[in-house]
Amino acid sequence: MIFAKALARVPFCYTEGNVHFFVILFNFCIFSLKKLLHFGWFCDTIFKIVKGVMVMFSMEERLLLEYFGSDPEKLLNARARLAAHEPLAYILGETVFFDETYKVTPAVLIPRPDTERVVEKVLAHLPAGGELLDLCTGSGCIAISSLCHSKNTRALLVDISENALEIAKENAQSNGVLKRCSFEQRDLMKGLPEGRFDVIVSNPPYVQSTVVDTLEKECSFEPRIAFDGGLDGGDFYRKILDEARAHLKEGGRIVFEIGYDQRSLMEELCGARGFGLEIYKDYGKNDRVAVITP
Questions:
Q1: How many other CB atoms are found less than 10 A from the CB of residue 177?
Q2: How does pLDDT run along the chain (294 residues), one tens digit per residue?
Q3: Structural contact between residues 257 and 203, judged by C-beta atoms closer than 8 angstroms
Q4: Of 217, 215, 213, whose CA–CA distance to 87 is shortest?
Q5: Which of 22, 57, 92 is the last residue of a domain?
Q6: Rounded Cα distance, 235 and 216, in Å
Q7: Are residues 36 and 85 in the same domain?
Q8: What pLDDT was estimated at residue 22?
Q9: What is the reported pLDDT for 59?
Q10: Beta-bridge partner residues of 184
Q11: 258 and 114 inside one domain
Q12: DSSP string, the chain
């Protein structure tokens, strides 16, 4: 299962592209070889054999075999779901994020590797014994991984979705931090929860409403509410920033995941409120994390 856990963290849309790229590249090479050798039957046969091997041993197929290989009916069903562009993590029922394994269902957004950078920044500002507020928690991955890698810390995990909070509770239990977690169902647009915290973190919906329906087909399986951030993608950022001062301890920080094209929006929102702002890049060298000092 080590291979499965390592690869399950990669959304299906990433790995599919890699496999298709090599198939297309190989197809081009065979086409060129045909032109050079005029030996069509041989090349066609070789191409079909190699293509079959590549599909059989693609990363997705290897994972499906590892999870469902002992049950032909379940394996067939999993292949059909994959062919319909359902994300691999939903098919497997789990994914790996940071160093932890998380249950995922269509009730929650699938944790992405780039969000691990958010956890890194939370850990940089969360003191031992500190308190964390995770808004729009979803699967709970940010708060839970932060607790797993810090000492004597606690977290309040907040989401509008009762189903998402149930998944977050299961993940807190399976990763050994349930006793350090509290959970609250809340619509953030009606206000932040009571209390003061060392760090307020959020990976809120931040995709522009008009862009949500243009995302990859795999994203259509995930909850739309987890993507839609309003006209400019900034609705949740504004609400949190407007109320954050009253909910932060002295020296506290706000940590946001942001879109790759939202640097200027963050600069505008923080500048208007007199907040300090640092922006950090993800593993793909795109702007991804905003650390804000009120």
A1: 22
A2: 444 444 444 443 434 444 455 555 555 555 555 555 555 555 566 666 655 555 545 788 888 999 998 999 999 999 999 999 999 999 999 999 999 999 999 999 999 999 999 999 999 999 999 999 999 999 999 999 999 999 999 999 999 999 999 999 999 999 999 999 999 999 999 999 999 999 999 999 999 999 999 999 999 999 999 999 999 999 999 999 999 999 999 999 999 999 999 999 999 999 999 999 999 999 999 999 999 999
A3: yes
A4: 217
A5: 92
A6: 23
A7: yes
A8: 52
A9: 82
A10: 158
A11: yes
A12: -HHHHHHHTS-HHHHHHHHHHHHHHHHHHHHHHHHHH--HHHHHHHHHHHHHHHHHTSHHHHHHHHHHTT-HHHHHHHHHHHHTT--HHHHHTEEEETTEEEE--TTSPPPPGGGHHHHHHHHHH--TT-EEEEES-TT-HHHHHHHHTSSS-EEEEEES-HHHHHHHHHHHHHTT-GGGEEEEE--GGG-PPSS-EEEEEE----B-HHHHTTS-GGGGGS-GGGTB--SSS-HHHHHHHHHGGGGEEEEEEEEEE--TT-HHHHHHHHHHHT-EEEEEE-TTSSEEEEEEE-
The domain total for the chain is 2
81 & 121 share domain: no
For 264, the domain range is 105-293
Regarding whether 289 and 157 lie in a shared domain, the answer is yes
Instruction: Quote the Cα angle for 21-25-30, to 5°.
Output: 150
Q: Which residue has 């394996």 as its token pair?
A: 75
Amino acid identity, position 125:
H
User: Is residue 99 a part of any domain in this protein?
Assistant: no
